[in-house]
Amino acid sequence: MFQNNDSAAAGIDHNFGLHEGGDQITLGGNCRAISQLELAIIAAPGPVDLIVRIYANDGPIALFAPAGNEPGTVLFDSGVMTIQATAQFGFNTFVVDLPNVPVPDTFTWTVQRTDGSGLWLRRYGPPSIGTGHDFAWDRWPTYWAPLSFPNNASVPFNHFYAVVHAAGGASTITCPAGATVACGGDTSTAALGTAAAQGCGPVNVTYTDATATGCAGDTITRTWVANDGSATPANCVQLIQVADSTPPTLVGVPAGATVECGAAPPAAAVTAVDDCSADPTITFSEVTSGTCGSSTLTRTWIAADNCGNASLASQVINIADTTPPVASATLTMVRDGDGEGSDHHDDDEGVFVVGASCSDNCDGVAGCGAATLVAELRCAQGGVVQVAAGATVEIELDDEECEIEIEHGEIEIEGDVTLVVTCTDASGNTAQAVAVPVGLSPDNDDEDEDDD
Which residues have C-beta within 8 Å of that of residue 122, sequence separation ≥ 6? Predict the structure, then answer.
């Protein structure tokens, strides 16, 4: 804006005659699009025909001008317009509306009467808004002549009455620097900055975000707009890269453990969380290595997000075998002894079925074989014979001697007999079970001598 209408020089008017004349000024503020000129002439009452023009001050350097170029390029020409003067030989103001004419910082406005009368302008000064210069312009037929009006204490009125209104105009805007933030990071304007803008009067600064999702993360295109009411708001773009370089976090992976063979716990229900991907993919695998009784079960979970970032966690379970197998031994009598040579019952002799078995906590575990079983009939007197589970044997009690025979495919043993079952697992752990014949009575033999 430019305002020079506060202090008038009484009686100090300038006569341009039939020439075009006006003042060179510099606008104040940021507005550079003129919407209105308020000027004044000295004229008798009645209609006044005139033309108002604005020049860019881009002509040749004027001869004898204190500073600057001639008016040069015409930026605005009102054409012939008629105003109505009302003051008797007095001071008449008039207004010219302009279509927001862009102008440089410094320009020249002029008035030219077209009705054959001379142009008189009254001197004012100094401007209260904007800056004036120490000369004005008078257009002669072939050149522009500068009119010097020194600004001093005796003659301070070195400009002409003028009020220039600038509405709108191009705003200027500067975006904050682009940024890269981690996924889930703060992308607010408080964290990443606000655009700085200047305009003609108050400037409204707004922004909009457009987000494009990709494997490397989101790209936010933040468009800033500065609007001071002009038809051409200024804008700039700030790019914000949301990077996803952080792998998911596995949750619920158990600590390592040492367990007995066959006692490994079931695999845990492991989950994963990620800053960017709502549902990371979890892959599970397990591998067993080593030998029975000294093996390692390694369980591995891998979590991957949508961008290929992955994390891995494992649980190592050491599998030991310190538990011995369980041995079972039974002697089940199925009939009395043969009673050779006698019709009498020998209640110290009978036929028995051998029961022998082994079970182990590592049964069925990969790499672990079944426990070995050894079943023996032992006499307290020192005799030993191996038997198979399910075999039938004839046992006769005798606490003095031990005699072992095979008769008719069956083992016959006489003595103080015990069945001993020994089980040995793959880790060398052993267990024993014993059984004695039940249902016989020692030293109660009805057999006579001829039965031998």
Answer: 8, 9, 12, 13, 14, 40, 42, 91, 160, 161
CA atoms of 100 and 36, how far apart (whole Å): 8
The mean pLDDT of 278-296, rounded to a whole number, is 90
pLDDT top residue among 126 and 52: 52
Q: Provide the pLDDT for residue 415.
A: 92
Letter for the amino acid at 19? H
List the structure tokens of 193: 């900055």
Q: Which of 243, 260, 282 is the endpoint of a domain?
A: 243
d(CA 200, CA 35): 12
Contacts 24+ apart (CB under 8 A), 314-318: 314/253, 315/253, 315/254, 315/255, 315/256, 315/257, 315/268, 316/256, 317/256, 317/257, 317/258, 317/259, 317/264, 317/265, 318/256, 318/257, 318/258, 318/259
Let me know: does 132 contact 108? Beta carbons within 8 Å. no
Is the same domain home to 101 and 162? yes
Distance CA 306, CA 281 (A): 8
pLDDT at 302: 97
Cα–Cα distance, 314 to 257 (Å, whole number): 12
pLDDT in tens, 372-406: 999 999 999 889 999 999 999 999 998 888 999 98
Amino acid letter, residue 400: E
Domain count, the chain: 4
Asked if the peptide bond before residue 126 counts as cis, ω within 30 degrees of 0, the response is yes
Residues 145 and 38 in one domain: yes
Q: Please say if the pLDDT value at position 116 is more than 60.
A: yes
Residues 437 and 398 in one domain: yes
pLDDT in tens, 131-189: 887 778 899 888 888 887 655 445 556 688 999 987 655 568 899 999 998 887 889 99
- Does the residue 450 lie in any domain? no
